[in-house]
Specification:
This protein is α+β, with helices and mostly antiparallel strands. The protein contains four helices and nine strands; from the N terminus they run H-E-E-E-E-E-E-E-E-E-H-H-H. Among the domains are: about 30-145, Immunoglobulin-like (Sandwich), CATH 2.60.40; about 170-210. Helix content is about 45%, strand content about 20%.
């Protein structure tokens, strides 16, 4: 019984701890969606005048084909609602290695328009736009309105950082105290329950022994009813 109780307590505490984190720290993990606002290519790498297949891709992610981009020196604008949007998601303090490529029709690797470290901090414009330009290759505008507050949050003053750290440790301490209280309450409740079950088992064992003794006396004919007969 004691082993069974011990195996049940940790999952309950883990579930409670996770619920506290999710309720008190909803913004702990943030990601911002990035869409393509416009693009113009200045060059194609296909031989024989074939129609290029341009796509965007970040390392470790699936590529996003840009089916409308077919001609050089033509500006393509998008609404962000296209079926192939968004391009990717960016976190506050983690960049991605991304690029714009052109699929090659032959065996050789795909051609590269440009590759760069794509970060939320690139979106410094108030309207959430970031322009990526490479001479003789392309000019693209990316849109990420949610990246602007992410970048602003990472540029606090020293005083605000100190205050934030103090609040963070206070929150951690509060969570530890609450979890400790529940651990103690859970342990006390489990111990009382175990004592109650043990007492019930001892009573049941005693009654069973008493009944077994009566059965033995009846079989041997030494019970009180046998004397009367």
């Amino acid at each position: 019984m004691r082993r069974r109780l011990k195996s049940r307590i940790p999952p309950l505490l883990l579930l409670f701890y996770r619920s506290i984190l999710l309720s008190l720290l909803p913004g702990l993990i943030t990601a911002a969606i990035v869409t393509l606002d416009s693009i113009e290519i200045y060059n194609t790498h296909e031989l024989l005048g074939l129609t290029p297949e341009v796509y965007f891709q970040c390392k470790g992610e699936n590529r996003t084909n840009l089916p409308d981009v077919k001609k050089k020196h033509e500006l393509y604008s998008f609404k962000g609602e296209e079926s192939w949007q968004p391009l990717t998601e960016l976190e506050e303090k983690k960049c991605k290695r991304c690029g714009i490529y052109e699929k090659d029709s032959f065996i050789k690797p795909d051609d590269v328009f440009d590759e760069w470290e794509f970060c939320a901090s690139d979106f410094t414009s108030p309207d959430g736009k970031y322009i990526r330009f490479k001479e003789k290759e392309f000019n693209a505008t990316f849109l990420c309105p949610d990246c602007v507050p992410l970048e602003g949050a990472s540029n606090h003053s020293a005083d605000s950082q100190t205050k934030g750290k103090g609040m963070h440790w206070a929150l951690v301490l509060l969570i530890c105290v609450v979890v400790s209280i529940f651990v103690v309450l859970g342990a006390v409740t489990a111990y009382k329950y175990w004592q109650k079950r043990k007492k019930q088992q001892e009573q049941a064992r005693f009654l069973k022994l008493f009944e077994d003794g009566d059965d033995i006396e009846d079989e041997l004919g030494i019970g009180p009813l046998n004397h009367v007969i």
